[in-house]
Amino acid sequence: MIRRLGLEDEISQSRISGYELATREPTLLILLKYAQVAGVCVDVLIDDGLNLPSKLPAARKHRLPK
Prior knowledge:
Elements: H1 2-5, H2 13-20, H3 28-38, H4 42-46
């Protein structure tokens, strides 16, 4: 996951595990990178009332800036 996020030099595996176990909160930059890798809007990662698509990465509904 760290490689997919493009953050090899910035975060560790234990930090990613903390996000996944809900013992740590990711920064907005990390949330944005997760959303980009998953092909979803950041809202889907933040709002517990929204569901992730059944298949990830999802088909993008928006364009990424160049």
